[in-house]
Design a protein that fits this description.
Elements lengths: L10 H5 L15 H15 L6 H10 L1 H5 L4 H16 L5 E4 L9 H17 L4 E7 L3 E6 L5 H15 L4 E5 L10 H6 L7 E7 L6 E6 L14 E6 L6 H11 L4 E4 L8 E6 L4 E11 L16 E2 L5 H16 L3 H16 L4
Parallel strand pairs: 3-4, 4-7, 7-8, 8-11
Antiparallel strand pairs: 1-10, 2-3, 5-6, 5-10, 9-10
Helix pairs in contact: 2-3, 3-5, 10-11
Length: 349
């Protein structure tokens, strides 16, 4: 699900995107022309066509205000704020590039893909940390969902390392989203093929619904459904990271710990609207078969609400308190209580 958030962009968008529309030179582009270009794109492809008239009205009502903004970055920020205020959609965003945004040719697309993959590689395809913590608790820090082509090997290796832990904490507090590998990772935690969501796309030839299911098999070792899984979130948790959290939470497969997430459910693409400006245009919305809705504008609510910086300790405490209730060995009871005291004091490593 390629969907940058309000503050965080996908790695693809950080490099470049497959830009559309005809060029308009930076010297002649006015705020009025930008509004004309972006509203045209909204009418052509925005996921909620019934909202476009109100969005356009809001933009044009403040045309004189935008005309007085000479800094292009501040203009992009002002247009973004107006778009999000009028629509409630945290994905709608205008971005400014100091360098001209190219109209992508086939050859350029290949170069962009190569640059994108190199950036993913340099960031270890989103996998930031794997650890076996005290009392055999697994810890998996994932800062982005990589492209499916690269996710298979990374997820297989990660889950094989973590397979023998007794419970698992997945840290998505710094995960901005990324690509279409949510269903693949979800597959490691569900024993049966499971319907995760339906993507409702607005396309030129008409609406299309694309169901998303977990895979029947995975590379490496499945974690399965028998062991507890906790997902750490923050207000910076966005997009694909929210899809993963939302799906496992509502399937009762994972406990979410931390803060309500950013609330960015829609999917889409960057669209070139001028030589130095682009619009992120959402043209798809997920619908959960469980809730019949999604997390757009509201975020994923945690089961255990704590500030993000305390979420890791809170998840460990939840695991240990459950262990303590079932533990019969006095020596192990003492050790669990000591670890809980460390976590309560903030001195735990």
């Amino acid at each position: 699900m390629e969907s940058p958030g309000m503050k965080a962009l996908s790695l693809t968008a950080l490099i470049c995107a497959l830009w559309l529309a005809a060029p308009v030179s930076a010297e002649t582009t006015t705020p009025a022309q930008l509004i004309d270009a972006l509203t045209q794109k909204l009418h052509q492809g925005y996921v909620y066509p019934d909202k476009v008239a109100n969005i356009e009205k809001a933009l044009r009502q403040h045309g004189k205000t935008y005309a007085g903004i000479n800094d292009p970055e501040k203009l992009a920020e002002a247009l973004t704020a107006e778009l999000q205020q009028a629509s409630g959609d945290m994905h709608l965003r205008v971005s400014y590039s100091p360098d001209p945004i190219p109209e992508t040719t086939g050859a350029q697309a290949g170069e962009i893909q190569a640059m994108e993959r190199e950036m993913w590689r340099a960031h270890n395809f989103g996998v930031s940390k794997l650890e076996r913590m005290s009392f055999n608790i697994g810890y998996f820090k994932l800062d982005a969902f990589p492209p499916v082509a690269d996710a298979g090997g990374m997820f297989a290796a990660s889950m094989t390392v973590l397979a023998n832990t007794d419970s698992l904490i997945i840290d998505l507090r710094e995960n901005f989203g990324g690509d279409h590998s949510v269903s693949l990772l979800s597959s490691y935690f569900l024993d049966q093929r499971t319907h995760l969501l339906d993507m409702h796309w607005r396309e030129a030839k008409g609406p299309r619904v694309e169901p998303d299911w977990t895979t029947d098999t995975v590379a490496g070792v499945k974690y399965g459904e028998a062991k507890d899984v906790y997902i750490l979130t923050s207000k910076e948790t966005f997009s694909a990271a929210e899809a993963f959290s939302y799906g496992l939470k509502n399937l009762k497969r994972a406990t979410v710990v931390g803060e309500t997430t950013g609330g960015a459910a829609h999917a889409g693409d960057d669209v070139r609207i001028a030589e130095h400006f682009a619009l992120f245009l959402p043209n798809g919305r997920p619908v959960s078969p469980v809730t019949k809705g999604n997390w757009e504008g509201v975020g994923v609510m945690p089961d255990i609400r704590v500030p993000a910086e305390h979420a890791l300790a809170a998840a460990q405490k939840a695991i240990l308190e459950k262990l303590l209730k079932a533990e019969k060995n006095p020596e192990r009871v003492t050790r669990i209580k000591a670890r809980l005291a460390e976590l309560d004091s903030g001195k735990a490593g």
